[in-house]
């Protein structure tokens, strides 16, 4: 199966309109319709239910859409990795600026002793951006907090930490020694969504803690943050029933890079020595 008909199919599946898909692809509708019919013939499956007024995916079309997106993304990633390999060899590590649970320095020191080690370049990224960078070939390995999109990725857990609430010193709950989610107005099933929404508001931890100190919000953060980032105007209080903060090292499933494997080994080794993987 060639990539062009898959690109045509994805455009129609996303637009659910042949005219708009053709415009997006820069072709006219008739050849697009012919390409889709030929693809259906090759697969022996109807991909779209067509009427004079609507276009809808069939069950077979829904399955192909998920697989086609992944396949096209993998092709583009292969090209990016090949272009990067043509330059000076290096390993690209994606992470948020504060997203290493205090392990990064030790990981890099251990990695430097590996025979397969390459110079490391950092790709500092937004909250939950690491998965996309790995799949698109813009990074080789990433440090990422769960939950994240695991599609096409392998991972090893590095640290499991309880969470603390970061509160402004004037917050009504700041005087309490410990908290529960209910004190913060959250249920367990809402906690991850709240964590994602709040972390998305700050480009980095310093910015987020500034908002906390101003009283604009509270944040649920890994417990290690309390020791690593003391800040005037902000207090940290343990939250006994909050979901754990789980840090992982992730890489593309199809990776055969010895340098990537060496960094993963170094990260797991450091985490094991520090006892972070067994923490609760």
Task: Write a short abstract of this structure.
The protein is an alpha+beta fold and 280 residues long.
Task: Supply the key terms.
D-Maltodextrin-Binding Protein, domain 2; 5-stranded mixed sheet; 280 residues; 3 domains; 10 helices
Give an overview of the whole structure.
The mean pLDDT is 89. The strands form three sheets. A five-stranded mixed β-sheet has the order 4-3-5-10-6. By secondary structure, it is an alpha+beta fold. The protein folds into three domains: 3-83, Winged helix-like DNA-binding domain superfamily/Winged helix DNA-binding domain (Arc Repressor Mutant, subunit A), CATH 1.10.10; 88-160 and 245-274, D-Maltodextrin-Binding Protein, domain 2 (3-Layer(aba) Sandwich), CATH 3.40.190; 163-238. It contains ten helices and ten strands. It starts with a helix and ends in a 6-residue tail after the last helix.
């Amino acid at each position: 199966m060639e990539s062009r008909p898959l690109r045509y199919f994805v455009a129609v599946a996303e637009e659910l309109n042949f005219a708009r898909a053709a415009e997006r692809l820069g072709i006219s509708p008739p050849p697009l319709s012919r390409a889709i019919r030929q693809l259906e013939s090759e697969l022996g499956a109807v991909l779209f239910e067509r009427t004079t007024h609507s276009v809808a995916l069939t069950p077979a079309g829904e399955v192909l859409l998920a697989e086609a997106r992944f396949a096209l993304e993998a092709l583009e990633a292969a090209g990016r990795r090949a272009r990067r390999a043509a330059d000076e060899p290096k390993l690209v590590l994606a992470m948020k600026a504060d997203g290493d649970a205090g392990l990064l320095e030790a990981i890099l020191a251990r990695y430097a002793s590996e025979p397969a080690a390459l110079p490391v370049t950092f790709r500092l990224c937004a909250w939950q951006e690491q998965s996309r960078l790995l799949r698109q070939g813009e990074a080789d390995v990433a440090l990422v907090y769960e939950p994240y999109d695991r599609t096409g990725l392998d991972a090893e857990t590095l640290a499991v930490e309880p969470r603390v609430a970061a509160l402004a010193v004037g917050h009504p709950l700041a005087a309490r020694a410990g908290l529960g989610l209910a004190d913060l107005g959250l249920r367990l099933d809402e906690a991850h969504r709240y964590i994602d929404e709040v972390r998305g508001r700050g480009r980095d931890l310093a910015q987020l803690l500034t908002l906390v100190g101003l009283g604009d919000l509270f944040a649920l953060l890994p417990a290690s943050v309390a020791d690593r980032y003391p800040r005037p105007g902000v207090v940290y209080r343990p939250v006994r029933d909050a979901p754990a903060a789980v840090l992982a090292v992730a890489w593309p499933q199809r990776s055969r890079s010895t340098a990537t494997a060496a960094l993963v080994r170094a990260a797991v080794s450091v985490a094991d020595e520090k006892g972070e993987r067994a923490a609760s």
